[in-house]
Amino acid sequence: MEGEPTLRLRIFNLNCWAIRYLSKRRQQRVRLIGDTLRQEGFDLVLLQEVWSEQDYSELKVKLAGSYPFSHYFRSGVIGSGLCVFSRFPILDTLLYQYSLNGYPYMLQHGDWFCGKSVGLGLDGFAGIRAPLLSPSLQLHAEYCRDKDAYLPHRLVQAWELAQFIRHTSKAADVVLLGGDLNMHPEDVGIRLLRGWTGLQDAFAEAMHFEGCKNGCTLVPDNCFTDKSELLPFPLGIRIDYILYKAISSFTVKCEELKTTTGRAPGMDIPFSDHEAVMATLHIQRQGQPAGATLGTADPALADVVTEARAEVGAGLRAARRQRYSSGRMAVLALLLLLLQAAAALATLAGLGAEQPFPKLSFCLLAFLALGALVLAAGLHLFHTMEVKMLHGTEDQMWMVLRALQERP
Amino acid sequence: MEGEPTLRLRIFNLNCWAIRYLSKRRQQRVRLIGDTLRQEGFDLVLLQEVWSEQDYSELKVKLAGSYPFSHYFRSGVIGSGLCVFSRFPILDTLLYQYSLNGYPYMLQHGDWFCGKSVGLGLDGFAGIRAPLLSPSLQLHAEYCRDKDAYLPHRLVQAWELAQFIRHTSKAADVVLLGGDLNMHPEDVGIRLLRGWTGLQDAFAEAMHFEGCKNGCTLVPDNCFTDKSELLPFPLGIRIDYILYKAISSFTVKCEELKTTTGRAPGMDIPFSDHEAVMATLHIQRQGQPAGATLGTADPALADVVTEARAEVGAGLRAARRQRYSSGRMAVLALLLLLLQAAAALATLAGLGAEQPFPKLSFCLLAFLALGALVLAAGLHLFHTMEVKMLHGTEDQMWMVLRALQERP
User: Which family would the database say this protein is a member of (chains A, B) (predicted)?
Assistant: First the structure.
């Protein structure tokens, strides 16, 4: 069916690093991003880390002419930071918040407050009757590769993302996913996501590539990147992706993939501390269904799920230990408070009246015990939730493994 | 195509009210539920409020013969309380947690801690090639009908549930939903859910009905119901539902609907404080697609969405007020602490040394100010999230309204 029209779709993906008061030269960069997007006229723009709704509103006003449709996904305390601009109508949206997203007490990492999530926009593209699914997402950041306490959380997120894609894209023609996944291409989370959804990596499939070596999106040439983070990777790392997949009677090919190279084209500063990823896809209708199902029959998939499940299991054991120790601390703090109450009552009853009662230190100790109790109880609550979610994911993975093994 | 085989599907739905240490005669009732389910041999059993995983495990062991497939959905601090038992394979599961679920500080209501959610199980039924979707859910409880502070939260949940069903069931043949929705049949949340998904109410459609008058599931005859809750409704209320819909080339008919009537059949105690709902559905394949789309073309739908959006808007304004007042309280507490620090420094510097420094009251005041600061900051954080989610829902509803109005 060579006669069917081909849709040429140009996609722009960028982690904008636009945190109010914290990101360097944010306003200048957001203006630059807006100007570039207006000039370049992409079809679909997926932005992450647009934390300020004001930045989104400014972009929306500036881009109203070239991208008449847009959506900002609201969640968490700060927001999801996700937004989509599109030349084609966004017909419907859905936000899925990951069940695990770091620890609220790790204030310096801040992930918990962002409500990281995957935003699903249903686009109706010209010439193609069926909807196009375009989630954009950001998984939990990796702060230390060697001792990565967040790995189980990131795997739960990768799993939930894969499940979400599988369940929501059954009637779609094409699935598009763009975002900062915070994982290297060979990491178990990426292998799990790709294996379980069958998504293809635009970088690996591109007929023509132009940009940073190996498609890296965090590079030392970028003046905003944290150089210490890149010490083990002198060439940079690739953590921003555009993934795609044809589901029904369509084929998708990646004609070209580009990344920026440490600065915005023709400017002296970069868009962000991440490089932008730009893909040109060819979407064509075929005479008969392409036959691609959502679950790939890759025999290596069972190994990947087994590997991921082992990591989640390790995280589960750690979470159980933390739940136990925070529970013990809460009980100890409660005992101390009860002891103090008994001592105070004894003093009131006139026992030990010959000695002066040390009011101030008593008060301070009670203060300390109460603080410890509240803190430990909160931690216990949090780790209880963590155990539930890790356990639930382990269960789901087991169910999938069983199904994979039963398959001929 | 009269020759196509008909699947007769018997469904059991019950809010089990099985809270450890709190629910009356829990163990006896769970045993009774298990025995009945084993004897009756339903095809699909949807249970809510099975808060203890041990109860689930006991049921699972007891029901292994008649219901070889089961799943327990884990979430929140206590769990989701949702579980499914099935005679047909459960192929895959997905849990969606509502973004808003009451207030963590309303300890007596407890909803926040349960992580209320919708569980999605994909069932493969005999004779029907395509998967069957069976979410079970429980929406936020209604504690006071006249002054219902939770109404916006419940509407956000109803909306998210409807959106979740629309997005996940596009390739399904039949959608089944069973659960305690905590809403009366004529409430705006139910009208929104049914209007936006096109789900049909088994009670309204049943060819034969047997049970409590008007299909009520919280009735005064049940010895465990809270009689004060039912004072305005002497006949009882209907808040537990079985809803269904055929999507592709299938038709679904409800042959029979039954409820228990204040006690378990042949016993002197009820299964729970809710009545069980039992439906017998006929699912038949048709020659050609039934043509039912997920969005119904009901002209009243726009009115329902408008009504719901107004309620969510009222909730949004209330949440903004609460965010503002908790923020102001936090600032005041911080000012008090700073003032105290200044006073302490002044004393240390020797100012006002002629008067004795009131150490104890100073300490107590600092304690109070710190407590108020932590509390107010926590509330501020929470209401900020609430504002984001209500605002996001309002936006989504607006998008849908625009699309509904543009439709011919």
Answer: Belongs to the neutral sphingomyelinase family.
